[in-house]
Amino acid sequence: xxxxxxxxxxxxxxxxxxxxxxxxxxxxxxxxxxxxxxxxxxxxxxxxxxxxxxxxxxxxxxxxxxxxxxxxxxxxxxxxxxxxxxxxxxxxxxxxxxxxxxxxxxxxxxxxxxxxxxxxxxxxxxxxxxxxxxxxxxxxxxxxxxxxxxxxxxxxxxxxxxxxxxxxxxxxxxxxxxxxxxxxxxxxxxxxxxxxxxxxxxxxxxxxxxxxxxxxxxxxxxxxxxxxxxxxxxxxxxxxxxxxxxxxxxxxxxxxxxxxxxxxxxxxxxxxxxxxxxxxxxxxxxxxxxxxxxxxxxxxxxxxxxxxxxxxxxxxxxxxxxxxxxxxxxxxxxxxxxxxxxxxxxxxxxxxxxxxxxxxxxxxxxxxxxxxxxxxxxxxxxxxxxxxxxxxxxxxxxxxxxxxxxxxxxxxxxxxxxxxxxxxxxxxxxxxxxxxxxxxxxxxxxxxxxxxxxxxxxxxxxxxxxxxxxxxxxxxxxxxxxxxxxxxxxxxxxxxxxxxxxxxxxxxxxxxxxxxxxxxxxxxxxxxxxxxxxxxxxxxxxxxxxxxxxxxxxxxxxxxxxxxxxxxxxxxxxxxxxxxxxxxxxxxxxxxxxxxxxxxxxxxxxxxxxxxxxxxxxxxxxxxxxxxxxxxxxxxxxxxxxxxxxxxxxxxxxxxxxxxxxxxxxxxxxxxxxxxxxxxxxxxxxxxxxxxxxxxxxxxxxxxxxxxxxxxxxxxxxxxx
Length: 721
Prior knowledge:
The chain is an alpha+beta fold. The chain has 11 helices and 44 strands. Among the domains are: about 30-175, Neuraminidase, CATH 2.120.10.30; about 465-720, Rossmann fold, CATH 3.40.50.1820. Helices cover about 15% and strands about 35% of the residues.
């Protein structure tokens, strides 16, 4: 059924036709969104980056002060007009790819302790600007700059160039190199691939509070196997080598060094392996191969390390004079120790805030010996302002709220800062909290002072041309949180609708949330094309406790696919217009892998699939991510076989479209090419859509727009719509 011409529903349909271009032009509605907030310790200033509109791809540096916004640095403005364009260093490009950064300009920055001096890199050049006035100034450096960071007192700026760690005075004088790579595969001050992509540690050095030294990561990738990524559409360009540690292969060697600005250095003596208490198993690797977090506060350096098998984590205090370490907190788990972002955080008393399990299954927090209540699932520690610790947590998995706990006023208990249903996060300094809120009504950023709203930071993102209208569902015996999107013009009893499942369903990410964001708009757009779109978060996704998240241990697919199937049938019982004879699944990355598995393993349920950037062969994915679930492939070969799809190619009897960016260095295009070859060898017809020049995130406007339309047409044809 289609809406009648000239009706309001017809107007909505016309707007929906323009949606793919808008989706691509706005980079998934990310342009114009303020982000990377820094609140000064006195709470008077808030720094952030944002473009000037919902279609402006150039990020600027902004200051919010005294209730007003002021631009501090405009990369396309007159202050930069005389600068010759430079190349963005490869290490910075890799960092942006890991962060999913789609804009250009000032995409990151760092400040001194008072948030008065700001440093940033622009096309490899080092720039500084002060928040109390004056134009941006360029500072001469030894080479192209990556990750510049001022010392706490603002007198020096550290940066990485050519894999070496340098410092320079803010007047451009007295440049010196503090750590020089000993070989071509060694860097100082940068993070390695696994730490950025799978662990979440993007930084590679940290200033001491006094500004007299730095804690520096040394990364040696000599033993890591290389992958070579080229652009077949530009065969004259040489391939780039990526040190990528696939499951079961050697990791980068990551160590730490204490370096004084005067030049002296001391190696941090990290423990080589876990001791008593480490869980045994068929595969036990006690070596501390992963540096999970690092930092340097007023008490001293603080580091956490994780074993190769991920079943032990130690939080270590570091003696800044000798490099000796002492464990202050130890965690073990028979599956894997979950890493809570923002932990450990050291309190003014010197005690750490670390992950805890109040009530057993709850993923909670221990704040200086006080545990969060059972049932409050802690997602991330945001930081501290004085003695007050801020963190995000959820009681209901479709919402995430900002909470606080004051260690100097324990009688207050745990206080929820955000109120409106949605997903909230925050940055804090002094009495000021910047509350970043995504709700069903949209996206807002509110400045609170002493808990009272005093202003807003503008969100300039475009409003989607389609308005999401999800029905909130809790399906089946596992109360699977789901959203059902129906065409705006459809009424119950109008007739059967083909069903499109569009989940993520993988570890570490939820999409069934009380928010209005890009993926809810895409789901509604597909609904306007004539589908009933069902989105479900099942086992393995966060927010519902340890057992729920770790139900995928040893098997990446069975529980996840069961939950999608159960949700589909439960939704059809509630909404008889869902046509179970015409069901498809689409997805990207993990959900692309899931979509391919759906038509291979459940062809009686799923009648077509679109698998984008699908991680078909789990042996090709990185060590930290894949070994977390499946262990070492030499010890558990059957787990990898059971969770990989290459051997099942001959089972394909349904239409399948494979899509992959040829420059993807996260999920290598080899996944799709090998799967396609196996399908071809088995005589199974399928469609392959290669995206030239695209990485894991498809950001090119024409490709992103055209992809949605091609997906729609493939699904319509495959399901007979």
